[in-house]
Amino acid sequence: MDYGILLMQQILNGLHIGSIYALIALGYTMVYGIVKLINFAHGDIMMVGAYIAFMMITAFNLPLPIAIIISMASCALIGMGIEKVAYKPLRNAPRMWALITAIGVSFFLETLFTILFGASSKPFPTLSLAPIQIGALQISQIMMISIGLSVFLMIALELFIKETKLGKAMRAASEDAKAAALMGISVNKTISIAFAIGSALGAIGGILFAMAYPQIKPLMGVMPGLKAFIAAVLGGIGILPGAMLGGFLLGIIESITKGFLSAFWPDASLWADAILFLILILVLLLKPAGILGKNVREKV
């Protein structure tokens, strides 16, 4: 066995799954950056996006690109609706209340889709694209699409936040919502847009995840959602490039643990998720602000 080739293959696989974690982590970051809320229902928005695309393809025979657009738009509206109904009334309440509400929304979506579609998994239609062979390495075209799309969306989102009037309003609301409101910025509007963008990114992540592992089920968003949260914390939650970096690093670590270390340590794949959560604990202990984050002292 050529361990060098095996390692390179697992790094490529890690970039693939890491790009999906990065997309979902961008959604966490968008919301946290403005309202300082960890939206634990975000992983289930990913699941909803995958199911909407599944219905568009199987029930209405729509092509995949159209199904993705409809899924993104639908999840954006759902995300805005959840914010209005579940989070907005608690905006001035203790943060723990909003966190508990987010967990409640998560359980509600999982239960609703279990009732509607059943608990069993369903095959997700995917693209039949031949992998690209480079020497002994195999690169799937879906992998290239996922990585390219995630990098493109991160750059587009960064430009949107820094260059557009609405993006600058979102940054102002993130810094000081009360001061932004006094300057004429609609804080409610910026928060709704943050939820819409984050939910749309979650929908894309869900579809790409369903294409990589071609099946969907109501609980499919639980572990990817938690891992994307770890990725956001690892890179620096609230920082868009940090979410991207954290997603790719986490994907590579997971893939190497499952596919490379298992060649030397048979039980490595069983420990993969535990290792990822151990990384979260270490980051919180050693550098709570994340790789790209900076520790900021709060004035009392």
Automatic annotation (TrEMBL):
Residues spanning the membrane: 15-35, 42-60, 97-119, 139-161, 193-216, 228-252, 264-286
Phylogenetic classification of the source organism: Bacteria, Bacillati, Bacillota, Clostridia, Lachnospirales
UniProt keyword list: Amino-acid transport, Cell inner membrane, Cell membrane, Membrane, Transmembrane, Transmembrane helix, Transport
GO CC aspect terms: plasma membrane
Compartment annotation: Cell membrane
UniProt family annotation: Belongs to the binding-protein-dependent transport system permease family. LivHM subfamily.
Coiled coil: none
Membrane topology: Multi-pass membrane protein
CDD domains linked to this entry: TM_PBP1_LivH_like
GO BP annotation list: D-alanine transmembrane transport; L-alanine transport; L-isoleucine import across plasma membrane
Protein name: Branched-chain amino acid ABC transporter permease
GO molecular function, one term: L-leucine transmembrane transporter activity
